[in-house]
Design goal:
3-stranded antiparallel β-sheet, about 230 residues, elongated, mainly alpha
């Protein structure tokens, strides 16, 4: 009996541990203490299968940025249409800046990890917890904004120093496209750190100068009626 008792105690402990591993995690119904909001963005997804639950969890984090991404897409489509009759350089540069912002947003979502998946034994429903480390995401966004700020200084100098009209106009177009893209990224940054990133230049003054430069353009429509 003395030999059997330790075995029974060990089996009871093992059974208790097994039951504990199936206990409902705190994050299913609310915030995770392990991943506080100050340092992480979290998303919870549920479904009848593991893969769908994980995908929905990632989607919950994507929703935090999705409204901004939707605005970006709509604005870009309008911009491309209204500028199509103007400068080809302006249109192509605006598209390249938009693509750059899209790549940053994609990089943010690639940083989302599935930390845990739990299945409710009664309902057989799977629950997944997705996390995004804010510090890594902030680094990706701030690096891109810093790159844009360097380009702003470069094109502003070109606009100020150019003696011919077209180089000034091209630089002005690029400045305005960069300011728009920077605004989009800064909105994502505020979601992550609540602060944003101060603009090293006087954006209002630079925009005013760029707008005045664009007034130098006169669009001439040449209709070739043929012979």
């Amino acid at each position: 009996m003395k030999k059997i008792l330790p075995i029974l105690i060990a089996l009871a402990c093992a059974a208790t541990a097994g039951a504990g591993s199936h206990a409902k995690p705190e994050w299913v119904d609310g915030a995770s203490m392990q991943f506080p909001h100050e340092h992480y963005l979290t998303g919870v997804g549920s479904a009848d299968d593991r893969a769908t639950a994980q995908e929905r969890a990632r989607g919950e984090i994507a929703k935090i940025f999705s409204s901004q991404m939707t605005v970006n897409s709509a604005s870009q489509a309008t911009e491309s249409t209204t500028q199509a009759s103007g400068s080809k350089d302006q249109n192509s540069f605006s598209q390249s800046v938009a693509l750059s912002v899209e790549n940053v947003s994609k990089k943010l979502l690639e940083g989302v990890e599935i930390h845990e998946t739990w299945q409710d034994e009664a309902s057989r429903v799977y629950y997944s917890l997705a996390i995004l480390d804010k510090s890594k995401a902030v680094s990706a966004v701030t690096d891109k904004i810093a790159d844009m700020d360097a380009q702003v200084k470069q094109y502003y100098a070109q606009m100020a120093q150019a003696t011919d009209k077209m180089p000034r106009v091209k630089a002005a177009m690029k400045l305005l496209a960069l300011f728009k893209a920077r605004k989009d990224l800064e909105a994502d940054l505020r979601v992550l750190d609540g602060k944003g990133m101060p603009n090293p230049v006087d954006e209002a003054a630079v925009k005013a100068t760029a707008a005045k430069t664009l007034e130098e353009i006169e669009i001439v429509v040449d209709i070739n009626q043929g012979a």
